[in-house]
Design goal:
This protein has about 280 residues and is an alpha/beta fold. It is about 45% helix and about 15% strand. Strands 1, 2, 3, 4, 5, 6, 7 and 8 form an eight-stranded mixed sheet that branches. Helix 1 packs parallel to helix 2 and helix 3 packs antiparallel against helix 12. The longest helix is centred in the last third of the chain and has 27 residues. The protein is globular and about 50 Å long. One of its GO terms (biological process) is lipid catabolic process.
Length: about 280
Amino acid sequence: MRKGLILEGGAMRGLFSAGVMDVMMENGIDFDGAIGVSAGAAFGCNYKSKQIGRTIRYNIRFADEWRYCSWRSWLLTGDLYGADFCYKELPAHLDVFDFQTFRKNPMEFYVVCTDAHTAKPVYHKLVKGTEQDLDWIRASASMPVVSHPVHIDGYDLLDGGISDSVPAHYFESIGYRKNVIILTQPAAYVKEPQDHQKLLKHALHNYPEVFKKLEHRHVAYNQTMAYIRQLEQTGQAFVVRPPRPLQIGSIEHDPEEMKRVYKIGKAEGKRQVEKMKQFLSE
């Protein structure tokens, strides 16, 4: 039975997941494969490269850097999270991503993206350990309206959360039947319909299928959460989630707020790690 790690997105809520994952890495927990969506992909890739602490380190370091994440970046480049800074300069020079360890680690790593024209999910395994893999991660985290679609391998791609926020069904379909799932919303969370639908429809006039998917995303998300609760209750998955709403937005410039969310993740990871080890060993 293949053991997998499934990582929800959620922009800066992903710092919770980063805290959990750092505890898991510190405790030597390995998986046969992992799959990340949006921030789950951007932060989760550090699990395969075995870089404990990297996610919180560079987020704090560049909290005030407009090229990293800002409305200024969006106005000047069309990307809220600056593409060149986040996926080229930062991993190549400023907080180096360990491509060599990423390649050598036998753990498979998948990302989820959304085809901007069909709004269907695109699942891709990162196998090269090169800058092209970072393009796939960027695509997975390219939120609609505040990001350009990423053109790669014949696709125009947007955020994977549009089409498959927590890809439990997909991972099971390719053989991962014993999964740890890290969510970024608490157990009581219920997704509501998208706000400002008329404005969103106008902003996405070139991608009508994406708008249609977003219109009904709350239904699909809540169905997925019901399925994950079923997996959890029957012992088929181990779920880690925040104990309370994280109350952090897509943009955060306060390092203390980043640390706060990360520390919640570390505390929850420490609380759950022994139970997680037992689940994975059964």
